[in-house]
User: Fold this.
Amino acid sequence: MRNSILFIGAGRMAEAIISGLYQKSDEQISHIYVSNRSNPERLTELAKKYKANAIHEIEKFIKRVDVIVLAMPPGEHKDILKRISPYITNQFIVTVAAGIGPAYLEDNLPTNTPVGWIMPNTAATIGHSISLYTYGKFVKDKHKKQMEMLVNSIGASQYCTEQQIHDLTAVTGSAPAFVYLFVETLIEFTEKMGVSSEVAEKLVNEMVIGSAEMLKGNLSARELREQVTTPGGATAEGIKVLQNGQFTQLVQQAVIATNKKAKGEE
Assistant:
């Protein structure tokens, strides 16, 4: 089965999925249409780069497609859903926005519309996202296959319930920013030791990349940490400072705060 897909939104996540589809699922694609009202230049760029079809009046193309991917910020969903609803027949509607689950989509689309939710992260741009995904109440086997095509285009994936995605958004979607902040901090401190910014970035970045590669092995993160941490040694002293500074609790609080914001809670 070859699918026609309409992307509403032409940002980085839309590009990541489009690029991945052409690389990994080209034989399953009939046409890709892309719409982006706010940035025509970006739309033109994306269309040329991937030989996609740039469109401006999405209403004229909805009945031509099998899947519609909503790749715009959460706050824009209500207006877009209202705009496309009169033209929906049995298209599979998928969002990649934080906080917009199947229940919200079903409430704002015609009855029995098949919907899905993907929560990717920025590593999607290099094909290494870990994407959480779920479905609404009206999906069929063909829609599940279409979902697999989408999530497999940008990396690994994990099926979850809607509530689990709400709870795990910070862990898989936002936590990369926590990691980058940790890296930034190490780089800045390394520079204070008289090392150039170029050397500092190389040292810290390669350390993190190597550490991440170790996680692909058979040992858990705890086991790897214990391997590095000789009791009473220098690393143990550094770990003690982090623990005394409530490092673990701060990470947990950051996850809770992120999830609350994503759900629109105060």
